Amino acid sequence: MADLDDVKEGKDFGLDTPVDVKAFGLRGSNALDWGMQDRLARIFQEKSGNTVMLAFDHGYFQGPATGLERLDLTIRPLVPYTDVMMCTRGGLRATMPADSRKPVVLRCSGGMSVLTELSNELVAVDIEDALRLNASAITTNVYVGAEYEHKSLSNLVKLIDTGNRYGVPTMAVTGVGKDMARDARYFGLASRISAELGAHIVKTYFVEEGFEKVVAGCPVPIVIAGGKKLPEIDALTMAYKAIDQGASGVDMGRNIFQSDSPVGMIKAVRAVVHDGETPEKALQIYEDEKARALSPA
Ligand code: 5RP
């Protein structure tokens, strides 16, 4: 039975103080519902407003690619250093700790491989399973201009609509097929289409010319993929330029887990994304960690 003894009436309503309405600062997200904002706030860190996602979903179409042969050996040690795990449900369930407290951006598309047409994806995870895994966001690729453009956009719409029903944001990944342009015009088009369809985050690629316009033309946060493995200083410079030109973080895979010091590299990327460190200073963080690992005290 509810306890009704000594119920005290409220008396301090702070009548002289206007109700504090805290704006939700993330680009394009102010009008979202509480659960949606809560999930986005787990992804984008409060202090910098940015995120470092560790992408290790590549196996869903590439198989056991270099650095991802054993997720338990190569990726699990990196989990403490990332803000977000971006992965498939198979990789997550089989190899990642459930007590890491790291939010998950769940790859929810699949159905093709490196041997077939990349744009021919399907929605490969049901929203119920995404919720069971406590996903903080769900994600699929869009292939604008590719053979299965319509299907990939329809997958995105499906994710957005089901995610909206349960307060789960959707990240669109602007995929590039084998022979597709990789310039600001293309990524600007694909990013904007994704945002207009209702994506809450867009993942795209950094381009040297016109990246600022890609960001400016996209009303929701943009994170960049790392792309193929580059020398560490080049990857850090790319991340630096992307953040400087308005990106809200990285969703980086190969440039971290294929580095000769993955922990050093993710620490260096964090310094760029969260602390605005220059690529040179961040490289020193990577070098120091690499040296430390080679000669532990
Ligand atoms: C594939 C993806 C991958 O997660 C992403 O491209 C991987 O990151 P990186 O390019 O940095 O290895 O979304 O479509």
Average the pLDDT over all residues and give the rounded result.
Answer: 96
User: How do the strands line up in the largest sheet?
Assistant: 1-2-3-6-7-8-9-10
Strand tally:
10
The rounded Rg comes to 21 Å
Bound small molecules, by name, code or SMILES, are: ribulose-5-phosphate
Helix amount: 25-40%
Question: Biggest sheet: strands, sense, closure?
Answer: 8 strands, parallel, barrel
Portion in strands: 5-15%
Number of helices: 12
Question: Quick one: overall form?
Answer: globular
End-to-end distance: 62 Å
Order of helices and strands: HEHHEHEEEHEHEHEHEHEHHH
What ranges have pLDDT less than 50 throughout 5 or more consecutive residues? Answer: none
Structural class: alpha/beta
Short description:
Helix content is 39%, strand content 14%. The chain is an alpha/beta fold and 297 residues long. An eight-stranded parallel beta barrel has the order 1-2-3-6-7-8-9-10, surrounded by six helices. The chain has a two-stranded antiparallel ribbon with strand order 4-5.
Describe the structure in your own words:
By secondary structure, the protein is α/β, with parallel strands linked by helices. Helices cover 39% and strands 14% of the residues. The chain is built from 12 helices and 10 strands. The strands form 2 sheets. Strands 1-2-3-6-7-8-9-10 form an 8-stranded parallel barrel, surrounded by 6 helices. A two-stranded antiparallel sheet has the order 4-5. Strand 6, helix 6 (149-166) and strand 7 (170-174) form a beta-alpha-beta unit. The model has no long low-confidence stretch (mean pLDDT 96). The protein binds ribulose-5-phosphate. Ribulose-5-phosphate is lined by residues 55, 57-58, 86, 141, 173, 175, 225-227, 252-255.
